[in-house]
Amino acid sequence: MGDKKRHRLRPPEEALLDPYASWLNAGDNSWQMTAATLVGLMSIPALAVLYGGLVQKKWAMNTVLMVFSTFCLTLIVWVLWAFKMGFGTPLISTFVGDPRSVLGHVAEQGQANIPLLNGLMPKFRFPESSLMYFQFVFAAITPILFIGSVIGRISFKVWLVFVPLWITFAYAVNAFLLWGGGYWAGKGALDFSGGYVIHLAAGVSGFVCAAVVGPRLKRDRERAIPNNLLFVAVGAGILWLGWNGFNGGDPYFAGADAAAAVVNTNVATAVAMMTWIIMDMAFSSEKKPTFLGGLNGMICGLVGITPAAGYVNGLGAILVGLIASAVVWCAWYYLPKYVWPFNKVDDALGVVYTHGIAGLLGGLLVGLFADPNMIVYLGVGKNPAVSGAGAFYHHPHQLLVQAGAALTIIVWDALVTFAILMVIKYVFRMKLRLPDSALEIGDIAVHGEEAYPSDDLVTVAATAAADEVSARDGKVPQKTQTP
């Protein structure tokens, strides 16, 4: 009887199951999900602890909570409507896609597809959910980046309203124009992994937000001392290595161009970091190398190579890192002192420089250094291979296309960001800025918690708790001394 039962439970040969759809490649899908996770780590925890360590200690928890909340809000908006606005069928010509959710079983398990790119690139070999999540972590990191522009004064409640609106009306449009087959994609604009869609957008929008919300308290601006440089170092390290997924995942396939993009990313970043450190040693007033200076150079390299990673060769990557870091170094020390409006706007962590200007430079340098021999997708039969070609490779028109795309992002994002803030202020009747009384105190006033509780307060609380236990046990507590 037992033998018959075991025989019945054994599936017949024809009933064997297949875990993979006919179009799915396990390697490509694995890399896409791994790359997405690496990019997600760049936000949480990397930017949470990096920004949280850079700000004054009274703003550490506010910064961390803003990062995590932005991650959550973006994902909710993304799956409900924004993903399809950036990567779906056109709604308004080649400007923005049709907002639709991606929560059904077909949307999650069907083959990934960007309608306007059909026939222009190989068919995806992973499901829509992999594409959706990969693009989500890019969307999430963009407003997270420009938290650094407005930290230390923007209302947390205002930020919760601002993020969904900005993702909808700014980011989704940027993504469709350049990545979803929209207008600038049709013109041949090259933005491999977000120099324009993410970094230029973050720099512009953060700068506008900082201008509208107003500066930090004068005392906070004059004494903007990081509270934990070791946390900053941890966040910076995760950010750098997470960028392997940021740029390595954007060919959408685990091919040779993905590997080249990873190498180019690291080479450009190494050159950029050392460029900033050497310039600090040679030209700064203190003539000293600093970790924070090196961090700025590192970010310039990561941002500058982002639009170019899979289009330039190794020499091009070195030049991008060198130029981006050197130019931003000059801008960092010159513009805030002498040039309007940079000398009037309190961009707390300098996002407009390390992301806005570096992203703009990286996008323009693609127009110079894109090497047509760097193949993104191989041609089959009579179809040509897909690559980019810049002015140094006899294609000067590419630089004009890059400039046009950059101008569109700058103007659109500045207008949309300003409009959203005005709607929040005048239609929703919300104060954009925290009251000065809250700005004086920081985390305790806004959230009722702090990153580094005072030892005195901890001692008092512990003594009070011990007294309560003693009283409950029938013992007479000793009189405590309150400092």
Order of helices and strands: HHHEEHHHHHHHHHHHHHHHH
Helix content: 55-70%
Largest pleated sheet:
2 strands, antiparallel
Give Rg in angstroms: 25 Å
In total, the number of strands is 2
Structural class: mainly alpha
- Average residue pLDDT: 93
Strand content: under 5%
Low-confidence stretches: 458-463, 476-483
First-residue to last-residue Cα separation: 81 Å
Counting H and I runs of at least 4 residues, what is the number of helices?
A: 19
What can you see in these coordinates?
The chain is an all-alpha fold and 483 residues long. The protein is built from 19 helices and two strands. It has a two-stranded antiparallel sheet. A hairpin with a 3-residue loop joins strand 1 and strand 2. Helix 13 packs across helix 15 and helix 14 runs antiparallel to helix 15. The longest helix is centred in the C-terminal third of the chain and has 31 residues.
Key phrases:
mainly alpha, Ammonium transporter fold, 483 residues, globular, disordered C terminus, 19 helices
